[in-house]
Amino acid sequence: MKTYNNRFNLTPTVQVKQMLGAQKMIKQPISLYKYQSGNDDSILNLVTCTSIMSSRVNLNDPYDSRAIINDPNPIDVYNYLITKGAEATLVANDIVKNGQYTENGRKYLDGQRAGLNKLLDSVALYCLSSNPKNVLMWSHYANSHKGFCIEYKPNCIPAIKMKYKAEIFKIDLINQVKAIFESSVNEYNGQVIEDVICTKLIDWEYESEYRLINAENGKLFQFEDGKSIHKFEYDPSQVASIIFGCKMDIDKIYAIGKALKYRPKFKMAVQTINGIDIKDL
Fold first, then answer.
1. Averaged in consecutive runs of 10 residues, what is the pLDDT profile of the chain (281 residues)?
2. What is the dihedral of CA 196, 199, 203, 204, to 10 degrees?
């Protein structure tokens, strides 16, 4: 029997719990939906139970998963570091002088900023919605209603519910410095991932989005440098139904039904006078 090492229903290990918080990794008790374009690649992925996770660099919104990273006041950094022992005091005197950052201080901050951005770029995301009836979602993500939507069963996916805010998240680099010198980098990085990766501008609230942050084989999966797409297989028993768009080509619907080796329910998105309804086929 085939096993699915990278399936959704992973049990988070201590590392993942430290990074994201155990309470954030709970499998959602609701159905979650993945809109698909209905092109040949998406149909092949459906047939082979393959999901594609992406880095934030591929997202369609330039504000999505982005943050403003603020430099701390040099005096605040200096006053903090000199309370943390001899080694930290040496760092303080190297990066701050006369209340200003030295050249080494600027390089230090640039390195911290680059490290945070590299961490955020390396996170693998799988974006889902709790709403299968949203007209805009069918229009934007399912090829103008010509695609399909995968319904995943409740209690399968440990996805995090998105937060929607008026402004993108702000990161104060002094908190990164404190995490380094207080040996709490894992916890701090996990909070940064959640705050930045799982926050979007309020304009996107209609998506009702949830995000899976991939923990592969019990560890936080991270992209290697230069890569931003990750394919993995999921267990077909986690699929409750396939919902076909109201404008999907009938030949494609028949082809999918014939090609699938597993048998989820088949449903149809149907136009009504005020939106979309879902009907069993």
1. 39 41 62 96 95 91 95 96 94 96 96 91 91 97 98 89 94 93 85 90 96 64 76 90 97 95 95 96 92
2. 120
Q: Evaluate whether 207 touches 137 at the Cβ level (below 8 Å).
A: yes
Burial state string for 203-242 with b = 16 or more CB within 10 A and e = fewer than 16: eeeebbbbbbbbbbeeebbbbeeeeeebebbbbbebbbbb
Cβ 197 vs Cβ 125: under 8 Å = yes
**pTM for the predicted model, two decimal places:** 0.86
- CB burial of residue 279 (10 Å; 0-12, 13-18, 19+): exposed
Q: Which two tokens stand for residue 135?
A: 């007209």
CA distances from 20 to 6, 77, 83, 93, 120 (A): 18, 26, 29, 34, 13
Per-residue three-class SS string for 190-255: HHHHHHHHCEEEHHHHHHCEEEEECEECCEECECCCCCCEEEEECCHHHEEEEEECCCCCHHHHHH
